[in-house]
Amino acid sequence: MSDALEITSGGAIAIDSSMVRDIGHRLGQVAHEAQGAAELVQTASATCAQAPTLAIGTGGMIGCMQRLGALADATRTHAHRVELMADTFELVELRNRQAALEVHRPEAALALQARIDELISGDPDIENKATMLVAGWQEQRFDGTGDQPLDDMLATIFPSTELSPLGPGALAIAFMAVSQLAAKSGQGLLPYGTKLQGPPPPVRVDPVTKGTTTPVSGVRDSLSRIPKDRPGQVVVEKYTMKDGSERFVAYIDGTRAVSSGYSDPWDMGSNWDLYVDRDQAASQVAVDKALEAAGASPGDRVDLVGYSQGAAIASFTAMEGVYDVGVVVTAGNPTEASLASDQTLVDLRHRGDIFSNLAGGGSAGGTGSPESFTAVAEVDAMSPVGAHRLEEYIDTAGQIDASGDPRVRQLQETFFAELGDAERVETTEFKATRP
What we know:
Blueprint: E1 2-8, H1 17-49, H2 59-102, H3 106-111, H4 113-122, H5 126-140, H6 150-157, H7 168-184, E2 189-190, E3 204-212, H8 219-224, E4 234-240, E5 246-252, H9 268-277, H10 282-293, E6 302-307, H11 309-320, E7 327-331, E8 336-337, E9 344-350, E10 373-379, H12 390-401, H13 406-420, E11 424-433
Parallel strand pairs: 2-8, 5-6, 6-7, 7-9, 9-10
Antiparallel strand pairs: 1-10, 3-11, 4-5, 4-11
């Protein structure tokens, strides 16, 4: 079971800066209306004072005017503070986006500098605020990792013959240190324009089962459709809409083999290709072939749901630009993509998940559309694989569906509602093998 669910816009940002700015603007309007009401009461009091024959006391009016004036002042102060918060969030977002663009799109990165300079000139202390915000997030992004039963986890994942001669404890410490070093280096963050390189490895993809199903209805239902403990590694659903158009949703499983060179492409070799070398991996090529076999063509609407290695595959596929990817749902993702402003990322992470931690906590400024969100939860880590288990993420997804968060509601009212209008949903499970 997971608890202590926290839903934010990702990284150090609790909520998208434009939403914060809108709150500040609305508070400013409330302050303006309260001030106007105070002035009307003052006018009424003065009018009554000039007409003593009315015999209306003005003491209550004066008290009301004072309370309205105090409310206006307090609300104006809050509005100013919220606007400063919006500026701080925006500065973090812009600097994060600038850093992600510098690798492959330096001109686009430079174009953001004018707005950054404008924000800094508006408040001399905003740089310190932004720096402190990111620093606080960086201190917390690996919370829970040291609490996981790493010895038990590694003893379960690796046979005893594969353990270090120094024992599982030493290997556990080394594994955690290496993963955090890789994460802190930024290896898990995928800059804008990142594309996998090299030739596609040979892989065969065959349908295992075919049929029809009901439209996917929520985040929990999405993760539940990942083919865990089934022959295939990826499921593709083809949605035929009422207007005759077609769209697709792919559900991609995580790592299945802990070494490399297996007939199953979902192995550590593919993890290495994706995470370290940024090369085309057999598992990622298999997903491309599965989508093609299901009927998806370049430019078609394809949405993606992935767990662990499958989440990394979904991230690269969303950035590749071959398909029109609108929504990406990931759980335990060792990477984080830099998505476009019209792509929505639903990112599930657990504190102490050492594989999710390979992403380094994600980007400090979040990514994707304003409707994107990151959900982080605490997890009971009594099981050997603890916080990374798909079953735990499915439980967290259920809490997300029931959270009432406005971003979750919007996802339900748009994305899942649209899919719910489909006239027909065909589903195919695909199994990939290396030849």
